[in-house]
Amino acid sequence: MYVSHFLAVSTAGAEPEEGAPAPDRIVSGAPSFKTWNVEEADGGLYAGIWEATPGKWRIEYEEWEFCHILSGVSIVTEDGGEAHTLKAGDSFILRPGFKGTWEVVETTRKEYVIRA
């Protein structure tokens, strides 16, 4: 039996998981999330598409994450650091230990790969 080692990162035919930041992390607005987790591999590797509606919340990363913005506008600010305005086409990495805020200015959709 043939098993493909190719996996498209797409929302087609998949039901998203819906969520939101923990209430104690919300700084402003009422943001909500949709996540299409298309890959979940042994060793804590995840990949998929995530979308969030406008709002601002605190984030803390214990994992490593690569992000590529597909649409929308967000501002990610590290505590004690500069604000990074992110839009379609931008790619970045959040490293373990990152603490700060994520503000969605316009509904934002990103592709992600997480290594826990």
From TrEMBL:
InterPro entries in the record: RmlC-like_jellyroll (IPR014710), RmlC_Cupin_sf (IPR011051), UGlyAH_Cupin_dom (IPR008579)
(S)-ureidoglycine aminohydrolase cupin domain residues: 40-112
Domain of life: Bacteria
Protein name per its UniProtKB record: Cupin domain-containing protein
